[in-house]
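Reviewer has doubts. Consider these tokens.
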Amino acid sequence: MDPQTHNPPAAGLAAAPDAHEHSGDKYQSTFITKYIFSQDHKMIARQYLITGIVWAVIGALMSVIFRLQLGFPEEDYAWLRPILGKWIIVNSDGIGSIAPDFYYAMVTLHGTIMIFFVLTGSLSGTFSNLLIPLQVGARDMASPFMNMLSYWLFLLSTLVMGASLFVSTGGFGGGWTHYPPLSALPQAMSGSGAGMTLWIVSIMLFIASVLLGGINYIATILNMRTKGMSLWRMPLTTWSFFVTAIIGLLSFPVLLAALALLTFDRSMGTSFFLSEIFIGGQPLDHIGGSAILYQHLFWFLGHPEVYIVILPAMGIVSEVLAVHSRKPIFGYKAMVYSIMSIGFLSFLVWAHHMFMSGMNPFIGNFFVVATLIIAVPSAVKVFNWIATLFQGKISFTTPMLFSIGFVSMFISGGLTGIFLGNSAIDIQLHDTYFVVAHFHIIMGVAAFFGTFAGVYHWFPKMFGRFMNETLGKIHFWGTMIGAYIIFWPMHYLGMAGVPRRYYRFDSFQAFGQFDSINQLITIATIITFGLQVLFILNFFFSIWKGRKVTSLNPWKANTLEWTTPITPGHGNWEGPIPEVHRWAYDYSTKGAIEDYVPQHHPVERQGAH
């Protein structure tokens, strides 16, 4: 028996008044209140998930479009004109090409959509909403109305961002980091006017959504845990959502302040981020600001944002690896402390994105050291995942495959981060395709693998059916191979000095030799996108036609969500909420009847026949 099973509940953190008794359905609902303006955390999780899927398809399609431009810049794209309209320029010979302004808007919106809407809003919104009340033993979130409001603000922010692409001047094309002066001066470039204004409004709405959700997650975990659910008995998924919410609550207001100051510069003649700018040969009439100040404010959110994205995926993977290897998670307390360490250290490394900004080298050394230190808790998690798999009774289910794939991506992407965290090497690699390769593997693909693992694993709890395993495994192997073909060659492009965010490279003699690599990456991108369509078809088909779940606990897991009915109603448990007696990872325990012992089983039952 692990010593953690004997920890008493935390003092002063008793369960909510309705935590244990529940008779009848006190949550009467109509179609609108059940499916649209729902206050049920499970339905809100589904809303976040499906909204995220829609925007992931849109964001991925954008990447396909600009990869076509990079891989085959001389091809005729007139066939896209009926879809993209004026953004496809047709010359006198009838040959169509992608407009440069549209290309840069695609690059900008792709990054914004994927980082904020899909990997932050949808990932945390889906699994934090679904799992926190179920795993801590609560009827719902601390504030169901606030939870509903957070989703609708999220949806509204995505629609405003989408609308920015359709204004007459087009969407903002200055990159997802929206540095001034391109973002601070409406006349700076096409898209810096109305497109950038809508971008700012959208992100402000998104931040409000994140803050409402984060407050709710923290309050639910601290105040609504069932009897016996001490902090040291919480699953690692809940721990990761908890620390993620704290990081978001501390970092996103900084970006909100930066956007407010940016709005003042754009509209009110202030100069927080502008100084000594000439427009059309005429000097700007207000000076004294600093564009570097904006970078500091942005990256104070921007680097914790990396962990807001990856920590939930880490928590999901930790749970899935333990369940499908039938082993206790290795080093539970070390895993929790590493999550806390990552959360703390994420606020001390932001300026490693700014080594080329003219930073004092001595200050830069601090951020180099902090960046290397944050690799330590990440390495602890990797070694513990590998130790969990070692000699386990591994079932290579689809969620397990994606979890193992996550570990692979996290290792390979993390190792390249050591290069970029070194200020001397970063001078050569900054703003090259090496950076694109690094953060797409560790922040993009790895986070998506964690998301896919979670979707396949908890799909039976969300919809009462299974997704198709054969299609799931095709999805995994195709995506795994495709992702490495797409992003691994980019490291070599970056080491050769190929810069990112360029419209085309065929006019550069030094970079013309890489045409074949760009073509390979583009073809792999199209094929990999097609495999995500396969996932979407599997997902929506399985909601209505998938194999039905016939047992409460199909994966034979230990956490409390598998003690609810197969399709739980609003309130989760029909009777009293189970009391917790042990930690979440009693797998293959010596003397037990089966190879798992759920958290609500009393300790004295262990080994009983």
In short: Residues 1-24 have pLDDT under 50 and may be disordered.
